[in-house]
Amino acid sequence: MLAASASLLNVDVVILDVGENAPAKQVVAPRAPHLSHVDGAFTDPAKIRELAAKVDVLTVEIEHVDVAVLEEVEATVPMGVHPSPSTIRTIQDKFVQKEHLRAHGCPVSEFMSIESTVQSIHEAAAKLGLPLMLKSRTLAYDGRGNFVVRDLSQAEEAIAALGNRPLYAEKWVPFVKEIAVVVVRSVSGEVSSYPVVETVHKNNICHLVFAPLRSQDLSVPARARTVAEAAVTTLQGAGVFGVEMFLMKDGSVYLNEIAPRPHNSGHYTIEACETSQYENHLRAILSLPLGSTELKVPSAAMLNLIGASPHMEDITAFASFALTVPGASVHLYGKPDCRKGRKMGHVTVVAGSDAEVRARLRPLLEKLPGGSD
Ligand code: ADP
Ligand code: MG
């Protein structure tokens, strides 16, 4: 999606990913031989150096990268690395990220460092209560890396499930809704934010996004945007950031986590906003004027297309059906294999009202591979 936006601006993109036919490489072909894509892992220092030698500006779409190498190449890439490697370092360890946010006065719920021992989990539960959310500090995504301890008898199971990874514990947040805001930050530090959206998760994976958030308390969107913008202001470097938050019954918001990149909760911006999160990411890292973040339709929803089985045909059949729904835009990611729990694509639905969006979404949810509840 970033590559598709770049091609409209005549910006050449060189991709580092495994395989000659990696999804992003299917979107843009190198225009000159010296711009050929790099075949390798985004954790491989030699490959990151090879990429850095080819480009004017380097950015990431995933935070699980080798930060030390990004720091090493930062001075050699003419327009730098965005967001800054120091930001990626802070964010990629969820415990360090939470400490950073708390130190800067951002509203985060209580959390504490723990050891991977039954005794340490008992101590955390005594302090933070049950249920207790255990999280892997690093390499977590789509809920892989979280374990909810509802009863202390589960402590051993939790350690086994999370493996021998560094962990920390968070107090359980009894939120009424999960919400998110995409924030864009320019090289000079100017920030602006997209509308607040409601995110609905299923099995810890983002399932649906509704834009804009509707809340009875009309002050919620402005407060959530202020919290999100303030949090991103504490970080260094340009680009878009996805800020995940919890909305509480009393209307207050807690920050959950920040992604230093275009975010799943912002996919709807492609069809529903004046400038997509991808185009604004490019504008930000290239020091071009930032685009308007306003909605250009009254209402939108985004439905993730998550693999339910190894059968790619289920995904393509669903995509064909989605093409019959007015206002629906289908995005398939070109991933080679379908797997249970893998994000294979998404569908964005826009309409003139919330009611119309819901009416258009209904047949899609009914036909969704793996069901919708
Ligand atoms: P990931 O990296 O997988 O996105 P998150 O830390 O965002 O991990 O957790 C995934 C989901 O787990 C969240 O979207 C939310 O639904 C739930 N969750 C995370 N932290 C808490 C918490 N402290 N209390 C209650 N639910 C939580
Ligand atoms: Mg998350």
Automatic annotation (TrEMBL):
Catalytic activity: 5-amino-1-(5-phospho-D-ribosyl)imidazole-4-carboxylate + H(+) = 5-amino-1-(5-phospho-beta-D-ribosyl)imidazole + CO2
Residues passing through the membrane, by range: none
Alphabetical keyword list: ATP-binding, Decarboxylase, Lyase, Nucleotide-binding, Purine biosynthesis
Pathway the protein acts in: Purine metabolism; IMP biosynthesis via de novo pathway; 5-amino-1-(5-phospho-D-ribosyl)imidazole-4-carboxylate from 5-amino-1-(5-phospho-D-ribosyl)imidazole (carboxylase route): step 1/1
Gene Ontology annotations of biological process type: 'de novo' IMP biosynthetic process
Tree of life domain: Eukaryota
Domain ATP-grasp, residue spans: 98-286
Enzyme Commission identifier(s): 4.1.1.21
GO molecular function: ATP binding; metal ion binding; phosphoribosylaminoimidazole carboxylase activity
UniProt family annotation: In the C-terminal section; belongs to the AIR carboxylase family. Class I subfamily.
The protein's name: Phosphoribosylaminoimidazole carboxylase
Source organism per UniProt: Grifola frondosa (Maitake)
Residues of the full protein shown: 1 to 373 of 564
